[in-house]
């Protein structure tokens, strides 16, 4: 797992980022650390949240495709992954 303060999240899987984010939330909820550490953890958590959201969006795009109807209206349909 990546240490708090390491800014690169690009190599983390969704599961790794989510686990680290959950650990940060637990530590922040305990409130037992120093203010500077809490701020750094919050910043790391925000980066991890954005990373997880991007991973989820990528996954959603892989399973949906945009289809234009005869009237030009765009709809989403499940992608044919076979």
UniProtKB/TrEMBL annotation:
A GO BP annotation: DNA catabolic process
Pfam families in alphabetical order: Exonuc_VII_S
Swiss-Prot/TrEMBL keywords: Cytoplasm, Exonuclease, Hydrolase, Nuclease
Catalytic activity entry: Exonucleolytic cleavage in either 5'- to 3'- or 3'- to 5'-direction to yield nucleoside 5'-phosphates
EC numbers on record: 3.1.11.6
GO cellular component assignments: cytosol; exodeoxyribonuclease VII complex
Enzyme class: hydrolase
GO function terms (MF aspect): exodeoxyribonuclease VII activity
Statement: the UniProt record of this protein carries the keyword Nuclease: yes
Origin superkingdom: Bacteria
Entry-linked InterPro entries: Exonuc_VII_S, Exonuc_VII_ssu_sf
Subcellular localization: Cytoplasm
UniProt record similarity statement: Belongs to the XseB family.
Role noted for this protein: Bidirectionally degrades single-stranded DNA into large acid-insoluble oligonucleotides, which are then degraded further into small acid-soluble oligonucleotides.
Subunit comment: Heterooligomer composed of large and small subunits.
Listed name of the protein: Exodeoxyribonuclease 7 small subunit
Originating organism: Defluviicoccus vanus
